[in-house]
Write a structure and sequence with these properties.
Distance between the termini: 67 Å
Strand content: 15-25%
Radius of gyration: 31 Å
Shape: flat
């Protein structure tokens, strides 16, 4: 058999377990060279370009955009033009890659529900759908099957599919993010040669109330919900406290009237839609890590006010006299933290929960929180205590630029011994932050503000920053956190100490 090479999902960092292709940069049939970008891959930390491990021709794309796969999973197949599609199918089958993840079904975006959800919205039908026919619904065999639990579809589409044995993974969705509607299911059945029975005319043993329900005793929330849903309060059973109609009663009445409630004209307030936006891999990882940190690490917080007038004066002098150096206040704060970590090494630690051990580090690897549209990432300035202010500023600037471009390498954001989170640019006076495990402390920095300060019995104006240190009490005691803030205050208010 002619050589066939698989392009696999690489492992970027020890903690990476899965990733999702967000965009292919090389089309099927195109040639590529070793080291050229093939696709963009999103992990729980970053979205980065994946470089080709070898050169070749991209014959088959297996992983569709939005599809989450484990490390080492097959993303694509490379082979020369002389290799037949049958040989590629055979090679994929030998690797355990099913037909549902490759071939024409995958390339059309119907091989995976997550992939389909990120495909472009289906184009409007060129001609109106044929009217529903009376009699039973007939489902072609091509659509038969069981629907997975995680299919992105409306409740009515899911109910119809369950009743008639339709696999919604085979139905293209026309809703936002590829959501499958009941109309999409009907259209798919008709397009495949089946028929859809006309819905039975609704029958009611009791006519719906039309009389004024303003005198019905109901809770304010229930009355507002009934107005939005078009439910008359006279049609609701009163099971709430003191015999009032409650929200559950309104919901029960709506379900009792069934589909008729869906077809009625809705007030303007009910036309507002709520869209369910799935969490990105990064946001999901942030949620899991911070929830675990908040649950497992007993946080305590200590705060200090830092006068930064001397720091601002030194910054202005350096920026005005040293070519190509533009220091920010945050650069000074990061450098001061690194210097304080060297002075109080008990804070420059990580906590290994599995081994129940404290990892003492000799170098101060300070992470800087960077806000991205997709979440938060903390690139790390390695050995910040050994760098000059100019070197540290350049390191921070380069890391922030790479973070915003999604080009951080795994070792540039994993680990670290301490984190600085600065919201001063947003005018926040003070806040506290959640520790980034396995680190044991994080500093939250607010905005510099001019405040009245008592000096030798006189009130003077000083530029002050409030900094709050969050510590893991399993590792750091209150006195240790206080000593760290003392050291930090000394370096910030006497910034010349950071130059020697």
């Amino acid at each position: 058999m002619t050589e066939i090479q698989f392009i696999e999902l690489p492992k970027w960092g020890l903690s990476m377990e899965e990733g999702a292709v967000t965009r292919w940069l090389v089309a099927e049939g195109a040639s590529f060279g070793k080291g050229e970008p093939l696709c963009e891959v999103e992990t729980s930390k970053i979205t980065n370009e994946m470089e080709a491990p070898f050169g070749g021709v991209l014959r088959r794309i297996v992983a569709q955009p939005g599809q989450t796969l484990p490390v080492s999973a097959v993303l694509a197949v490379s082979a020369e033009a002389s290799v037949s599609d049958a040989e590629i199918d055979e090679a994929l089958a030998a690797r355990g890659v099913g037909a549902e993840l490759s071939g024409d079904s995958a390339r059309s975006g119907q091989g995976d529900d997550a992939a389909r959800n990120l495909q472009p919205v289906a184009a409007p039908r060129e001609s109106p759908a044929p009217a529903a026919v009376s009699g039973a619904t007939t489902v072609p065999g091509v659509l038969a099957g069981a629907t997975a639990d995680d299919i992105f579809a409306t409740p009515y589409a899911l109910r119809f599919a369950a009743e008639h044995g339709i696999d919604l993974a085979k139905v293209p969705g026309s809703g936002r993010l590829g959501r499958v509607s009941l109309e999409d299911v009907h259209n798919a059945v008709r397009d495949a040669g089946g028929t859809v029975a006309a819905p039975p005319a609704p029958t009611r043993s009791t006519p719906r109330s039309t009389q004024d329900d303003s005198d019905v005793d109901a809770t304010p929330v229930a009355r507002r919900l009934a107005a939005e849903l078009g439910v008359n309060l006279h049609d609701c059973r009163a099971t709430g406290s003191r015999g009032r109609v409650c929200v559950a009663d309104v919901r029960e009445a709506e379900q009792r009237w069934g589909r008729e409630c869906e077809d009625r004209p809705q007030p303007a307030s009910a036309l507002t839609t709520v869209e369910a936006v799935p969490l990105t891999s990064m946001r999901r990882a942030i949620a899991q890590r911070l929830q675990a940190a908040k649950r497992n690490a007993p946080h305590f917080r200590v705060s200090v006010d830092l006068e930064i007038d001397a720091l601002l004066a030194l910054r202005e002098q350096i920026n005005a006299t040293v070519p190509a150096v533009k220091l920010s206040v945050n650069d000074f704060i990061v450098k001061a933290c690194a210097s304080a970590l060297r002075a109080v090494p008990e804070v420059n630690v990580q906590f290994d929960e599995d081994a129940q051990a404290v990892l003492q580090h000799s170098a101060a690897d300070v992470a800087v929180a960077v806000a991205l549209p997709s979440g938060l990432i903390t690139p790390i300035v390695r050995g910040a205590d050994a760098q000059s202010l100019a070197e540290l500023s350049a390191s921070v600037h380069a890391l922030v630029t790479k973070a915003k471009a999604g080009q951080l390498a795994p070792d540039e954001f994993q680990g670290g011994t301490f984190t600085v989170s600065n919201l001063g640019m947003y005018g926040v006076r003070e806040f506290d932050a959640i520790i980034n495990p396995p680190q044991a402390a994080i500093l939250a920095v607010g905005a510099g503000q001019q405040r009245p300060v008592a000096v030798d019995g006189q009130v003077v104006v000083r530029t002050v920053i409030t900094a709050t240190l969050s510590c893991d009490h399993r590792v750091i005691d209150g006195a240790v956190g206080a000593r760290f803030l003392q050291a930090l205050k000394r370096f910030v208010e006497s910034p010349a100490l950071m130059l020697v």
